[in-house]
Design a protein that fits this description.
65 residues; 4 helices; elongated
């Protein structure tokens, strides 16, 4: 389904079909990108563990001894 929508969106760039454009506009308005507020950013977490690199380095250091 996603592939079909992408193809239609790309097709619309060249075709200019008004019915298809209204569907595209509707989809864009539903899934609009919005900027996070400072309060919302407080809840965002980066993936991974900050101490992962330290564990890997210490494991490598002990294996070479």
């Amino acid at each position: 389904m996603e592939r079909t929508l992408k193809t239609l969106f790309d097709f619309q760039k060249y075709e200019g079909n008004s019915d298809l454009q209204s569907i595209i506009d509707s989809v864009h308005s539903r899934y609009a990108v919005k900027e996070l507020s400072l309060d919302e950013m407080e809840w965002v977490a980066a993936a991974g563990s900050p101490d992962l690199q330290e564990k890997k380095v210490s494991k490598d250091a002990t294996s070479h001894s």
